[in-house]
């Protein structure tokens, strides 16, 4: 679908605050630490509240704001739909069940932390989360084709954090302003 045809598609909206709450509650219960691929599928493909470009734009903004990406994304989607009440409903949906689950896990973790099976299960979850992030990046790649330098920035960030083990904050502080300036320059030139 071309960009102009995709822009002409009318997006659905949440029915009410309850729909917004339960959608984000379902998203947050889909997994810990690797929910963004599920969020894209639900918000873009199933609910059609956002198109791919809107999802990428809101995700980009949510990544530079303080706090967890999906919380920021939920706040923006909720606010777009129902103002501050929508933002609170989406935030409540994101935090209610995970808060209870984390409290239960924290209470039980101290008793089972030394069990080898628990340790191995947590290591396996790390790999699943990494795979989900890679899958989301591959799925968003067609949207990023317009930004010709995106692979260069991704490679630089991967090299800094993944290979050189530099702190993420330092890499973001180095690459972020440079990427913004380059994007601004690219918009000015035809």
TrEMBL record:
Q: Return the similarity comment.
A: Belongs to the chromate ion transporter (CHR) (TC 2.A.51) family.
Question: Transmembrane residues, as ranges?
Answer: 20-39, 86-109, 121-138
Against Pfam families, the record matches this protein to:
Chromate_transp
Compartment annotation: Cell membrane
Would you tell me the protein name for this molecule? Chromate transporter
Q: Which GO terms describe its cellular component?
A: plasma membrane
**Keyword terms of this UniProt record:** Cell membrane, Membrane, Transmembrane, Transmembrane helix
Q: Specify the superkingdom.
A: Bacteria
Molecular-function annotations in GO: chromate transmembrane transporter activity
UniProt topology in membrane? Multi-pass membrane protein
